[in-house]
Amino acid sequence: MGTSTAGRSWLHAFHVDGFGLILEVLASCVTPCISTGYIRGYIRKENGYVTIFQAAWGPGTNYLTDSNPIKKAVMTPDVVYNKYRRQSLIILLCAFAAFALTIVAVIDETWDDPQTEEQTESISSAKVFEFEKVDDLTRDSSVQTLLQNGHTAATVTFLDETYFEPFTVWLDLYAKLRTGRVLFVFVPNDRSHDKAKLALEKLALEVYSQTSVLVNLKSDTANHLDKWNAHNLWKLRMQVLRQLLDSFSHMDFILSDVDAIWLKDPAAPGGIFNQHETSPDIVVSRGTYPHECAVSFEDNDQTAPITACLGLALFRNTPSVHRLLADVETMLPSKHNDDQKSLNCVLTEQYTRIGEASEAEDGSVLSQFQILSGEITGTLQLRILPYSQVTRICDEEILSTDATVAHCYVHPVEEHEHNKTGDKKMENFERFGFIDRMRSNQDGQLILPHSETFVTGEYEEHEAYAISLRPKLKLERGPIAYHGQSTLCVCPKCGSASFYGELYRMTHDGKSWPNENNPVQNLGLRPWKKALTWRRVDWQSRSDWRKFVDSESIALIRDPKERLLSVYRDKVACGAHKASKDRFVNDLIGLSGATYRRSPTRGFGSRCLNLDEFVQVLYEVHAQGKQQLLNRHLRPQHLLCFLHASPDQWAHVIEAKDPNAACILEAVVFGEPIREGDECALSVDHANPFELEEVLAPLEERMLDAITKEEYEVLSPYLVDTGDQSSSFIVDASK
What we know:
By secondary structure, this protein is an alpha/beta fold. The protein contains 21 helices and 26 strands.
C-alpha cells in the first residue's frame, strides 16, 4: 500500500565519537536506500566538525543544500553531544520509523521510480553558489568538493555595475566554450550581486550548465577599503587571489577581465597555457604598462616595453606564486594600489633576473627570476604571451584570426576621452562582432518551458459577457466576440481602440465614440448599451467550436515585441503617472516572485520599472511557466485569441496596420465590405504620447527573444513585417 505525504518523516541523524555509534550503525544499514533516492544524506564529518543535515526522504526529494542554513548546521562534537543527548531516544525511534517507512515505499508499486544517485548528481551538479564573504567561501566544504571535478584550474573575474553589460557578453562567449571549469565572480555590493546572479542563473546555468561561485565583497570592501573604485578593485583582487590559492592548494586560477573576450579556451589541452614542455609559474598576456618596470623589450627596442598584463593571467599554485602575491600586496600602497604595476615592479626591482629573457617559437617571452624574500628562496618562471594569441589591437577582422582571447584596447578619439566605460566597451564589442557572435549560436538561446496549449478555469475565473447589438452581434470579454456564425477576436494592446472605434462607427450609423474620458473597449458603458442587450456567460459558453472553421471570422494580432513595448510604455514605465499603474506593476512583480526596490532617482508617485527590469520580471514569470496567469495585456496572444482555434482555422488573422483591416471587419460583421480602396484602413491612434527612450541591454534583449519565441512561431505567417525578431529596440513614443 502507498504511504501518504503526511506519513513522510524527517530523519535526523547525528554523529559524534561514541554518542552516535548506534545511529552510525543504523545509518550504515540505511545507506543502500540512498542509492535508490529515498534517503539523501544525513551526516558528514570533516576535520573534527560534524555537519548535520535534515534529509527529506521520498522519491524525487532533495533538501541537501549546503547554502541553506535552515537545513544545515556545523558544530563540534561536544556541542552536538550536549545539545542532543536528551533527544537521542526520540532521534533513534524516528530513524527506525523512517527506515521502516522507506522499506514500505521501496516495495510500493504505486510510487514512481526514483532517480538514481548518478542521475541526481548530474542534475544538481551545475548551480550558482553564493557567499557573502571570501572567508565563507574558503571555509565551505561544498566548494572543496566542487573543485575536485577533474579540472586543475578555475576561472576568476571581478565585476562592478560599470561593466555589467560587457560582462553579459563576456559570460555568454565564455560559457559557450563549455570548459567545465568553475567560474568565480566577485562583486562589490548588493546591486552588482543581484545583476550578476541574474546573468549567471539565466544564461550561464540554464543555457550552458555552467557552475559558478558568486561572492559579494560588500563586507570585505567595508572592512578594508575606504571606497570602491578601480584602484581598490585592483588591491582587493590580489588579496582574493592569494586567499583562493592558499585555501584550494590543488587548484590553479585563471584571472580574466570581463572585456577580455574568450574566443577559445586558453587552458584546454594544447591551448596557449599548455603549449610548452615546462609549466611556468605564471602565464600572462602581453602589455606595455608600466614602462619603468618592463620585464623585457620588443627586439631590444627600449621604446617598446614588454610587461605582464593581468587582463588574462594563469597563476599556478606554487610556493613561488604565493611569495610573489604576498610581495605584491606589500608593494600595493606605494603604487596607488595598482596591482599590475606592483607585480611588474616586484619582479624587476625586488627579484633577480636569471639570465636574459628568451623568445619561444610561438613568440612568447620566457623569463626566470630568483626570489630572495624573507625566509623564502627559490625561482619563479614567467611566460608572457604574444599579441597574436591575446590580441590587444583589434579590428573588424578579429574573429577571423587565430587569436585565443581578444582583449581589445581602443585609443581615445579625443585627448581627454575616457575609453574604459561600459558603454565604450559595448560599442567596441558591437564593432568587432562579439555581440553578433553571441546572438548567432543556437546554443545561446534562452530556453523557457512551453506554455499550455489550453488554459482552463483552474487558472483564472474567466468573467465574460455576451451582448447583442444590431444585427444580433454578440461579444464576449476574453476577448472572443461573435454574432451568429461570425467571430471576432481582439487582443489587448493589439490596436483594440482603433478596432472597437471602427466597430462602433459601423454599428452606430457612422458616429464616432462619444465618451472621450472612457475607453471604447469598455462594452459596459452607456453608448454601447443603447444598442446592446446583456447576457452573462462564462468563458466556455460557445459550444460550436467544431463548426468554427466553416464560419466567417477575424482575429486582430500584433507583433509580440511591439505589443509588449506598448504595454511597457503605457502601464509600467517611469515618467507618466496612471492610477492603475501601481496595481499593474504590483501584480506583475507579485506573480514573478521578485522584490520591488524603488530607485532613489525615481522619486515618489506610482510604482514603475525601467525597461531592463520589466523584461527581467516578465522573463521570471515565463521561466516559471506562469504566462497563462499574466494580465491579458501581457499574456501571449496564442493564449488569448487562439485558445480554442489555431490561427489557421480563422478566416482572417490581421494586424491593425493592415491596409484592408476595416473592409475585412465589415465583411465579417455584415457579410460583405461596404467601403473600398483607400477607405479600408483603420485609423490607428496612440493613447500614450509621453516621450521616453531606452535601449535593452544584451542579456535582457535575449530574455525578450525567449519570452516571445513561441508567440512568433505561432504568429509569424500572419504578421505584416516580422523583421529581425532578435534585434534590440528603443522605446520610442512616436512608434
